[in-house]
C-alpha cells in the first residue's frame, strides 16, 4: 500500500493548488470558472468513497460546468473493458460498459498528458466503429486517468473526455491536466478504501468460516459451508475440494464441478503429480494459473469428461500436521485474474479447513467403528452385557434379552445383582471376581433364572476394560447358552446319523445287486442283468446327488458373502432348468405348467445360487406330488422378481411349518412314505436367499398341496 487515503488526498490537494496558481498566472484563462469547478470537484468528490461514484460525479460536475458532453471512464486492471459515465450538459448521466478493444481509449490512456484529438485524424476503423467517436462530430479533448504524474499505483487506466469542446471553455487543454490530477487523487482514495473494505469483508468471511468449521464434524456440511462463501469472495466460477487417497496415490474431488447438473458424473480424480491439482498435492505449494491451457501442468481430462471449460486455476494444498491431505481449487476467476492476494486468502482458509476435514474423517472412522461394534454386539448369537464398575447394566443385546426371557423390559440401568440371578453360585460374587481378577476371561458355569421361572444352563465369561489411569471403565460379560449348544450338538449327531442312514441304504442296495451279478445270478438272463444294472445305476445316482448336495452346502456355508456384483438373468436360467424338470414330472404322470413373464430384469446373486434355489423347490414339488399338477410362475413385483412353485401334492402339516427350513428337517409323512431325501434342500434354499437378500414364504394344506413363493431382489444396474 502506498499510504493512507488522507495522506494521498493532502498530497494531491497540495499539487492541485500549485496548478491552480499556475493557471492564475495565465491572464487569458480567467480563473474563476476553473477554480469554481475545482472547488466543486473537491467538495463533491470528497464525500464519495467508491471509484464508480467518483467517475459519475466527476462527469456530472465537468459536463454541467462546461456545457459539454463529458465522459469519464475507468477500466478493469487488464483493460478488457471500460466502465463509462457519459453526462450531457443538462446533467443527464448514462452508464455503459465498453469492450476494451472497441472503446478507442488506447491512444488516450497511453498519452503523456492532455490532447485534442481531431475526428478526421483518428484511424478510420476507430472513427467508424468505436463507441467514442460515435459521440463526437469534430474533436475530443481527453486526458488519461490516472494523470501520469499522480503518485500511487492502484488506479486502473481510464480517461476524461470532453466531446466537441467549445473554443472558450473553463476546461481546456491546459486546465484539464490539474483537474485530472485532482480526480486521480479521489479515484485512488476510493480504490484504497474499496480495497480495505474488501479486506474487511474477506476477514469477516474468514472468521465466519473458521467458526463454522469448528461447529460441525460432518464432511458434507464442512464442504457446503466453505465452498460457497469462498467461491463468492474470490469471484470464482467454481470451488472444489480434492482429497488424497494415500493408498491409490490419487486425488478425488468431493464436490462436483458445476453443481447439480454434474452430480451424476463419476467423481473427478487425478493421480498425484498429474494436472495442476496433482502438482500442488505433490509439491505442497500453491499454484496460480491464469491461462490454464497454456500451462504445461494442466490436464484437460476433466474438461473433456464434463464439458466444463477451465480458464484460470488457483490451487492451494490442504495440509494437516505437515501432511498434504488434499487440495482446495478455485476455477475461472469471473472478472480478471487470480493474484497473490487471492492465493493468500485461499491459503488462510486451507489451514483450518484441512484440520476440520481431518477431524471429520477421524470422526466418521470412529462412528463406523462404533457402528461395527454395535452390529457385532446386536448380531451375536451369544448373550452380551456390559456394566460399569459399580455393576449397573449399560447395555444388553437381544440374545441376552431372549435368554432371560424378559421380553420388552429394559434392563439397561438395572443393577446386575437384581437382573442376573444364578444357581448354584451367586452372580454378584462372580462380578467381584471379574473386577479383581487379573486373569483374562474368568468363567462361571451354572443355571440362569429366566423370567418364566425356568433355569437355562449357561457358561458366562467376564472381562474388565481398564481406563488409562488403571481404574475399571467397563465390564463385559458373554453368556453362552449351553442348552442351545447342546441342541446344535444333538442336531449335528442327528445329521450324521441321518446321512449315514441315507448313504447306507443305497450303498446296501448297490452292494447286494453287484453281488448277485458277481455270483452269476443273471448270467444267462440279459433282461435280469439289465434290471440289476439299472438298480445299481439309480442308487449310485442317488448317492451321487446326496454327496453333491452336502458339498454344495459346505460351499454355501463357507462362502456366505457372495460377490455383490454378480447378477442372473432369470428368464435364461428358467429356460435351462425347467424343460428337464417338466420331462421328469410328465414321466411321473403329472401335469407341468409354467407361466414366466418375458424380459424380467436381472436379479442379484450368482447363477449357481438361483439354480440351486429353483431346482430344489421344483424337484420337491414333483417329489411330493403323487398325482396332479406342479406349476412354476415368475413375474416382476416392485423391486423383486417373484417365483412361485405350486404343487397338488401331499402338503405339509401345520405344526411342521416352523421347522421346515431347519437343517435335516423332514416331515413325518415324508419319512413314512419312504420318499428319499436328506432334509438339506430347504435349508440350502434359505441360506442361499439370505446371501442375496431374498425371502421365501410357504403356504400349505395337508393332502391338498403346497406353494412356495420366493422373492429375488433385482440387481442394481
Ligand atoms: P428333502 O426333500 O431332501 O427331504 P428338503 O429340505 O428339500 O429335503 O425338504 C424338507 C422337508 O420338507 C421334506 O422332507 C418334506 O417333508 C417337506 N417338503 C418340502 N417340500 C415339500 C413339498 N413341496 N410338499 C410337501 N412337503 C415338502
Bound molecules: adenosine-5'-diphosphate
Mean pLDDT over the residues: 83
The helix/strand class is: alpha+beta
Helices, by number, come to 20
Report helical residue fraction. 40-55%
Query: Which term fits the overall shape?
Result: elongated
Spans of at least 5 consecutive residues whose pLDDT stays below 50 are: 1-30
Q: What is the beta-strand fraction? A: 15-25%
Distance between the termini: 60 Å
Count all strands and give the number. 25
Q: Could you give a short account of the major beta sheet?
A: 6 strands, antiparallel
The strands making up the biggest β-sheet line up spatially as 3-2-1-6-5-4
The radius of gyration is 45 Å
Quick tags:
717 residues; alpha+beta; six-stranded antiparallel sheet; 20 helices; 25 strands; 44% helix; elongated; disordered N terminus; binds adenosine-5'-diphosphate
